[in-house]
Amino acid sequence: SNTIFGKSAGASLDAGSNQNTFIGENVSDASMNDALGNTVVGYSAGSAITTSDYNTILGRNAGLLLSTGASNVMVGNGAGATTVDVDNSVLIGLHAGGGATITAAADGTVAIGSSALTALTSGAKNTAVGYYASSGFTTGASNTALGYGALSGTGGATVLDSDHNTAVGADSMNGTWTTTKAEGNTAVGSSTMQGAMQGAENNTAIGYQSAQAITTGGSNTALGKGAGGTVSTGDSNTLVGSGAGYNIGTNSNNTCMGQNAGASLTSSDNTIIGSYAGDVLAGGTANVVVGRAAL
Predict the structure, then answer these.
(1) Does the pLDDT at position 224 exceed 90?
(2) What is the pLDDT of residue 132?
(3) Dihedral, 37, 115, 163, 174 alpha carbons, nearest 10
């Protein structure tokens, strides 16, 4: 049996469609064929359902074009609106996952927040939580965005295929990426790793504004508020401590550990350990500085 309330709701139910609840005008009004266990509420929500089973859809135009997808949760005005066949996805928020056609390749997508993953098409294993979180990604896979605007500023078609990035924190990893995929990056903290990345790979930034300017640099580790704040094209720097290695910029292979250790450094291949150690040292390479406030 079915529960139906609203103008044209469930207008073309067949005998095999059962255990459905349809509430609202034009809800689930397509020709159904053994559709089971759907709960759909809101103007034109789930309007195209034919064989879909066990979906929970709530909101105006939510799941509007869903026809064959199953076991989805779509809540919010226009959530999942343009998707025809996706399974086991959770799309919650205004237009969450609702700006492009999510395909079966993206089964299991989780998008929670207004416009989260709104451009997603075939990217698999993505999770986005927060306003506009990962809003630009289309085919990129295995990305995780948590926070207001996290992973939201990506650019051209190629970079929208970037994989294996994790951004946690408001505006984390939200720079306008350019033409080359950036992959395997982890940014945790508000305003981390915000540069216009182009091919940047395997960077880790933890702490407010850490590694904020990375563009093409790879394999950098920055831990602490503002650590490696200006690193852009430099590679393989390890910077631990608030302000550590802040000015390294384009330089590589530095190890700075301690608050403001090597904060003024503008060269490569240095090892600086200790709070404020080498904090005024700028030039020279292959320096080794150990001790609090040394040099």
Answers:
(1) yes
(2) 96
(3) -160
